[in-house]
Every structure is written in C-alpha cells, then in structure tokens.
Design brief:
CATH architecture: Sandwich
Low-confidence stretches: none
Oligomer: single chain
CATH topology: Immunoglobulin-like
Number of strands: 10
Number of helices: 1
Shape: elongated
Order of helices and strands: HEEEEEEEEEE
Amino acid sequence: MKKIIFITLSLLLSLSFLNCEKDDICADRNANTPRVIVEFYDVVNTSTLKNVTNLRVKEVGTDEGVVFNATLASDNAARYLSNGNKIEIPLKTFDTTSEFEFLFNHGDASENIDVIRFNYATSNVFISRACGYKAIFQLDPTTPIMILPDAANWIQNIVVSQPNIENENEVHVKIYF
C-alpha cells in the first residue's frame, strides 16, 4: 500500500513539472525602439567632430525636452542639455513625422533655434513573447530631413548616413555647423 501511494505521489509530482513554462523575461538589448543617433561635425573641416554648446532639443509644440542626462533630477535644467558631439532623439512611433527644435546655446543671449522635421515610415517587428514588438524607422528617401527656414540657421547642412533606424549602434544623421 505504501508503495502505491509513493508511486502515485511521485507520478503526480512528475506530471506537475510538465506544466511549467519558461520565465518571460526580456533580456534582449536590442528589444527597445531605437532612437535616432545624431553626430555633429565642423562645417569647414567636415571630418572633424564638433561639440555643441548647451544644446536643448524639444518637440515642437511642447516644453518637454529630450533627456540627455537621466541621472540628474527632473527639475535640474542640465538634465535636458547636451555639450557633446553625439545625441539620441526618440521619434514618434504613431506618426510619420517628428519635428524638433534644436536650441543652440540655450539660456544664453546668443541662443539660436533651428527646427528640424524627420520624415519616415514605421514598421513593427516582433522580438519575442517576453519583449513584444519594437518599432523600426525608415527615413523617407526623397525628403528624409528638412531644416525649416529661419533667418539665421546655425545648422548649415544635414546628411543622412543610415536611413534604416533599426538599432542604436550606428550614426544615422550627421549635422554640420
């Protein structure tokens, strides 16, 4: 009798493990929707990277700036400023255009604002059950990026070096100033 109970319990315990599933944890580094990687170059010496000064980027029509220094407090103005030669900008996943104001020398008397429009198509790519989908972008081949007219543009030229925005491992756009 004891053997039958032991065998029955062992069999039930064995069957219970057959119903287990793997944990759904998204560990894929490339599972997030990529941002546009922008590098800044000297307009005279086009192969030389050039740092921007107190650059603030915000979506047109909002006061929310792109966060460049996430470790700073949300009320710290430096959280939204870049002083390097490379930035990452998120595009809208639910639209085919995104417009941003690039505020050069933000907060200074010499502040200069240029508005840039990114034109693109989006598609969703299935990553896994745990990660779900991510959006990838394809910049429009005819007019990928437009600098909206201004009396004194600080941006002199924009070159699209990689129109397929599938990851953040490469530079997509080069801005010359």
